[in-house]
Amino acid sequence: MGRPTPAVRAAKAVALTVVVLLVVFPLWTVLATSLASPQNVISNGGWVIWPEDFSFGAYTEILQGGIITRALLVSAGVTVIGTALSLTCTIGLAYTLSRPKVYGGKPLLLLVLFTFLFPPGMVPLFLVVQSAGLFDQYAALILPFLVNVFNLVVMRGFFQSIPSELIDAARIDGAGEPAILRKIVLPLSKAVIAVIGLFYAVAYWNRFFEAIIYFNDQTKWPIGTVLRQYVTGGASLAETSGEMATTSPQSVQMAVVMLATLPIVCVYPFVQRYFVKGVVTGALKA
Amino acid sequence: MNILFRLGTAREAFDVSMTRVRGGAGGTSPPAEKPPTQPGDERPRTWRLRRIRADGVLLIIAVPGLVYFLFFHYGALFGNVLAFQDFVPFLGISGSEWVGLAHFERMFGDPEFWNAVKNTLLIAALQLVFFFPAPLALALLLNSIVGDTVRRFVQSVVYLPHFLSWVIVVALFQQMLGGAGVVNGWLSDLGMGGISIIGNPDAYGPLVIAQLIWKECGWATIIFLAALSQVDEQQYEAAALDGAGWGRRLWHVTLPAIRPVIALLLVLRLGEFLSIGFEQFFLQRQSVGPETGEVLETFVYFTGFASGDFGYAAAVGLFKGVIGVLLIYTANKVAHRLGEQGVYQK
Predict the structure, then answer these.
(1) Mean pLDDT on B219-247
(2) pLDDT tens digit sequence for A16-27
């Protein structure tokens, strides 16, 4: 292949820089504003690109307790428990549906895939959750989303791509299904489990709408719902931020955005290397 | 919202529907019930029991997931009957009065419903025209990067927004483009008048598309990049030897090679034409008002949960769901024809 001319290379470099800046710059502004001192924020008109003097006031304030600390704990708990439950159920069902000749396998697969065509409506799902007595229960943020049919299909596709010779050999050696799953299938599926786990975790962490309709008790809200109320909903954080002299409301708002973003940014690099390996193979082979 | 997953799932749907068609037409037993393999298994009942026992562990680990689908999905599917009821929460589905198609009649005469339809179609069309090609362009750019490190870095950066919630994305856009935001600050520093984007109904369409591109464009490149990696290097070399420049190689080698993927994704996207998303519009409807900001799903939400008109809201939701099924079904039929050379055959 011929070398691109310098002009083409320069154009590419500019285009890539613009793309990267478009993603990074807004996040950077949020970080900078959350870390700037109140005087700095006010003199700059509400936002900062490069903090002139740092202050962790916004973070110490919202982490002292109160609604945001509680919301972060709720989200963390829902995310950890939800992801564990979701992965367990997804792996179990996906593995069964991936085995050829399981009794009733085809009808069960149809039963599951039909839900892809017709996802539950908002109002009927609300009534199901209500009838299950899940109002104001943290389970309402987990159980209605326990298994995602896309994730299930990707995982099933990955399980199917495991050479059947391996499984047959283990069976001949006398391994039962639990041992095959634990000692052969799961170790080979680390990539797809990591990726699907990340998808579930992110979905649980980001969930905000359900708490609005299922929770009357605002103290049980997860961070997404609180964020919506105080940042994008325009409500003031004043009632939660005590000492207005040491922090600016903008810094506090941006600190909340930062805390809602941070866990994702932290986990993401560790799972990212599995994206292509886990997801593309799973999806393409499905 | 994920193309990769849709591909996989669409493929599954064909397989299953094809199996069903074949099984029905041939008059044979369903494929799951394979004839007994061991001699001596004459009576089907014994054979079935034996099969269930043999697959016992497998069937048991599938139970939690199946219960979930039965309860939350099929339960909710059944719950759609309230679209035909004058539903009173206190009385429940069994106690509420049946009203037949009254909600649907009301729907067709409701100007607010038609306004939501109009806005939904408008945004869906904008998504198709502006969001669909964006990942392809970005993928071509990424694919042309020679250095591995640079490429991986850029990929990491552009995938990230996919994992942020809509609340965060909307907050970021407010911070950047809002009345007191960064861009307006720059403009006033330059002595220019401010621009009104957030909360301006005229800018709502472009704004929601820009948000969607910011959030999902990078992630959507994955499938295109996978397709681009399959393009035969030798064809590039041959074209380059023949004197084809960058533009001609793109037009005559790259694009024809990934055309099946593009066509397939386009068809699948058309199948989900009405699925424009909910949270993004739920979060921003108030800022521009229902005239511009109301889409079908927010209409269902505000009719059902804010006004308490559950039966009517369920009817609108059911209507949208049925149209959606028809669209997906048609798209999958078309995609199956294209699928012979689609990515998932690789």
Answers:
(1) 83
(2) 999 999 999 999
Question: According to the model, what pLDDT value does residue B193 have?
Answer: 79
pTM, full prediction: 0.86
pLDDT at B28 over 60: no
Instruction: Name the A residues in 23-62 with CB < 8 Å from any B CB.
Output: 23-24, 26-27, 29-30, 33, 44-47, 49
Contact residues for A161 (Cβ-Cβ < 8 A; gap 6+): A281, A282, A285
Q: What is the DSSP letter of A246?
A: T
pLDDT digits (tens, 9 = 90+) for A254-263: 898 999 999 9
Point out the residue among B150, B176, B300 whose CB comes nearest to the CB of A123. B300
Q: Which residue carries 């009345």 as its tokens?
A: B179
Output the six-digit token pair for A40. Answer: 């700095």
Q: Report yes or no: B31 at the A interface, CB cutoff 8 Å.
A: yes
